[in-house]
Design brief:
Structural class: mainly alpha
Order of helices and strands: HHHHHHHHHHHHHHHHHHH
Shape: globular
CATH architecture of the largest domain: Up-down Bundle
Number of helices: 19
Largest sheet: none
Distance between the termini: 45 Å
Number of domains: 2
Low-confidence stretches: 402-425
Number of strands: 0
CATH topology of the largest domain: Na+/H+ antiporter like fold
Mean pLDDT: 84
Length: about 425
């Protein structure tokens, strides 16, 4: 099959999956993943992503950076309680999640300790490519959806950088454990600094363009983003991901919402990226990579999902305003996404090239984690949210999406509010 036909199948499968999700009410990420399995090695074998060559890795990296940039644009951590909740959860997961994931991968899935630590780092990322569409589709209340999205945006790049350093340690490119932390801080800090500076410069340019130049603003934003990510990757490997997030945060805070529709344009492109990436990466998975793991792999993923409950309990100690239902919801929603899959595929190739056994097992365990968490949590999370009363009503969702509408309704008598809402819709 030609590369053009592969891309055509991937786009069509993703678009058809979106349609099926819309008509059925199923979570889109679950249907997208199933469509990739159907057209790929594990199903009809119509699409072979490896036929696209080495350029696929670069393109996936740029599209993932677009999704992370979009997440940064919309990240709003207003309020000290919310900021504290995100900080505590991220720090607790960074420490306990890494150690717990490595232990479970070694004991239950049989990975060697060096590769188990790599898996623990990869599994830290609860991908925004999955979290964001999931919480939006099930209309999770803002206080919890913001925490989940912020956790994914922060830990996704941190986990990718840390996993690369631990892989270098396993390959012998790094000789000592004490080299990992300084390099981690250098790459994360460097990525955040370069991304923040680029975002600030982009804001200065965009603010001087007229309101009607939305197309030009979009083109400039994408040009700066892709150059930023690729350039940062050359200087500091894997630092392009934190650079994309930090640039998005700076642009989102710097641009006034009423003066630009850039957020909406970027969001549509990010959804398109997710639509094609999920089927394409899932198509690369074969059952032969999963079957050697057996029940050990399944039990590892199940234990990892349950272990998150303990991590969330520890990370929420002393936090005001979180009920037991909130904590249960935060504990259950942790699907892994595209960045996790891309990193695992790349690492497996590097391990095979170095002649180190276990690369296929590592990739298989990561993809098994993606399959189980997306399917089980993606299908059950909306039901759990409704059962716990954590779903926004139509009126609340409309007010969150339109601050101007909220201000107008405050001035309306009670009977006129419904009419105002209907008019806005």
């Amino acid at each position: 099959m030609t590369s053009e036909l592969i891309w055509g199948f991937a786009f069509f499968a993703g678009a058809l999956a979106r349609l099926v999700a819309r008509l059925s009410g199923w979570p889109a990420v679950v249907v997208l993943l199933a469509s990739g399995l159907l057209i790929g090695d594990a199903g009809l074998d119509w699409v072979q992503p490896e036929a696209l060559g080495g350029g696929l890795e670069s393109l996936v990296g740029l599209l993932v950076s677009l999704v992370l940039f979009d997440g940064g644009l919309n990240l709003r951590l207003a309020g000290r309680d919310l900021q504290r909740a995100v900080l505590q959860l991220v720090l607790t997961r960074g420490l306990l999640g890494l150690a717990g994931g490595a232990l479970l991968a070694h004991e239950l899935a049989g990975l060697s300790w060096p590769l188990a630590w790599v898996f623990g780092a990869i599994a830290l990322g609860t991908g925004p490519t999955v979290i964001t569409p999931l919480v939006q589709q099930m209309r999770l209340v803002p206080r919890l959806s913001t925490v989940l999205e912020a956790e994914g945006l922060i830990l996704e790049p941190v986990g990718a950088v840390l996993a690369l350093l631990l892989l270098q340690l396993a390959l012998g490119d790094l000789s000592q454990w004490d080299q990992v932390l300084p390099l981690l801080l250098l790459r994360l800090g460097g990525g955040v600094l370069i991304g923040s500076l680029s975002g600030w410069l982009l804001v200065l340019v965009l603010e001087r363009l007229p309101r009607e130049a939305e197309g030009l603003k979009l083109q400039l934003s994408l040009g700066v983003l892709f150059l930023l990510v690729s350039g940062t990757q050359v200087l500091l490997p894997e630092a392009g991901l934190p650079a994309a997030v930090s640039a998005g945060v700076v642009v989102g805070l710097g641009l006034k919402e009423e003066s630009s529709s850039l957020d909406a344009l970027i969001a549509h492109l990010a959804q398109l990226a997710i639509t094609v990436l999920f089927p394409l990466l899932a198509a690369d998975l074969s059952w032969g990579e999963l079957s050697p793991l057996g029940w050990g792999g399944v039990s590892c993923v199940a234990a990892l999902m349950l272990f998150r409950w303990l991590v969330v309990q520890a990370g929420s100690l002393g936090l005001p305003g979180l009920s037991w239902g909130d904590k249960l919801m935060l504990s259950w929603v942790a699907p892994r996404g595209i960045v996790t899959a891309a990193v695992a595929s790349l690492f497996a190739l590097k391990l095979d090239a170095a002649g180190i056994l276990g690369g296929g097992t590592l990739k298989g365990l990561v993809f098994l984690t993606i399959l189980i968490t997306v399917a089980v949590q993606g299908l059950s999370a909306p039901l759990l949210a409704r059962r716990l009363g954590l779903v926004e009503s139509d009126l609340e969702a409309a007010l969150d999406a339109s601050p101007g509408l909220a201000a107008g309704l405050e001035q309306q008598p009670g009977g006129e509010q419904v009419g105002a809402l209907e008019a806005a819709e």
